[in-house]
Structures are given as C-alpha cells and as structure tokens.
Design goal:
The chain is mostly helical and 234 residues long. Helix content is 75%, strand content 0%.
Length: 234
C-alpha cells in the first residue's frame, strides 16, 4: 500500500507544498493582470485565467511526464528550468509586496483597505490585454507546476496523480484563499521555495548521472550506470 510507504509519504508532502505555493503564486499573477479592469469584466478575466491555468496543467501533465521519463538531457533541462523558477520566486519573496494587495482585492472583489475602490491603484487596461497577459503567465506557471510536481513525485505515480488533481482543485476552487494565506504566512512560500530548489537539484543530478559518474549524495542522488540512456536507445 503506497500510503504506508515512507518514501511515498515524503514525496506526497513535497507535492502538496509545491502545489500550495505555486497555486497561490499563479493566483496573484491572475489577480494583478485583472486588477486594472473595470469591475464588470474583472471577474470574467479571473475566471478565464483560472480555467486556462487548469486546462494547461492537465495538458502539460500529459506531455511533460512522458518526456521526463526519457531521462538524460531532458531531466537536466527540467532541473535547470526549475532553478530559474526558484530564482524568480526568491526575487518575488525578497521584494516589496505592494502590488499583491491590489491582486488580492481583485481576486476577492472587495475594497479591503477602504479607499473607495477595488484595486484602484492598478493601471487601467482592456479585457483583451488582461486575458493575453494572464494566458502568457499561465503557460509558464503551469509548466513550472507540472515539472515541480513530477520531480517531487519521482517514481510514485499515485503521488503524481494526487498532486496534479490537487493543483487543479486549488486553482479552480481555492485560488483566492490560498493567495491570501501565503500573503499572511510568508514562511510557507519560503518552505515551498526550498522544496522546489531540492527537486531541481535532484532532477538535474539524475539527468547528469546518465552521462558522467557522480558519487552518491545522501537524499539527492544515487549513482546509476553511466551511458545507460544511450544504451537504452539502441
């Protein structure tokens, strides 16, 4: 039974924290894009963004997990991409969060600072501009989410399925709540960042180990036969 396997439970916990952090991050991006819209179209833009993020997560899950299973250079590329995700998250967590309030007001459709407007400080834009901005961000962030979840799940297919299901639910049902949660408890986002960093390094090492000999690194890497990727191709 997978739920009695410590390795599975560890992977599942990593997957849940990654989903939590990246779903909240995605929600803030959607809220920021929609913040400059008039109130009558703001909810429509947010709904489009959440639906797009959900569909893209499912689509990327179907292709990314198959590609990562090939190992080698694709694992290295996935690890490098996740390292870039870590860098972006670090910059966001280390910088000012003034814009996040505008995003949260847009997501909640509420004047939480009692200034008489909902996300009134955001620059004005059209629905088309907001939707294009949201979809471009969704493509990048959905790929980031699927890569991180697949890397954390490792060979536990059940953890991968649960993680992707949770990701869809979090974006579709609880995006605003999760964004607010991460805004109040920043340490959760920092823990998520460290887990994604761990997954990125482990993924890159796993891919690199197919080409060069790497000594065992506890928790991160166990050696396997160099050149087995090339051998499997013949």
């Amino acid at each position: 039974m997978p739920f009695t396997d410590p390795s599975f439970l560890s992977s599942l916990l990593q997957v849940i924290l990654i989903d939590l952090v990246l779903a909240g991050d995605n929600a803030v991006v959607i809220g920021l894009a929609a913040a400059g819209l008039a109130s009558d179209v703001r909810r429509k833009a947010i709904l489009i963004g959440i639906i797009a993020a959900t569909v893209l997560r499912i689509f990327f899950a179907l292709i990314t997990t198959q590609l990562l299973a090939l190992g080698g250079g694709l694992l290295i590329a996935g690890g490098v991409l996740l390292l870039y995700v870590c860098w972006k998250m670090y910059r966001e967590l280390s910088s000012s969060h003034a814009d996040e309030h505008e995003a949260q007001e847009a997501l909640d459709n509420a004047d939480t600072n009692a200034d008489g407007t909902v996300a009134g400080r955001a620059p004005r834009k059209t629905l088309r501009q907001a939707v294009i901005q949201i979809i471009i961000a969704d493509v990048s962030m959905s790929l980031d989410n699927v890569l991180a979840v697949a890397g954390a799940a490792q060979h536990h297919f059940e953890a991968l399925v649960i993680g992707l299901g949770l990701s869809v639910v979090m974006m579709g049902v609880a995006a605003s709540f999760i964004a607010g949660l991460l805004q109040r408890f920043r340490w959760i986002a920092w823990v998520g960042l460290l887990i994604i960093l761990f997954v990125a390094i482990r993924m890159a090492l796993e891919g690199l180990g197919a080409f060069v000999a790497i000594p065992e690194i506890p928790l991160l890497y166990k050696p396997h036969a160099v050149g087995e990727v090339a051998g499997a191709a013949h």
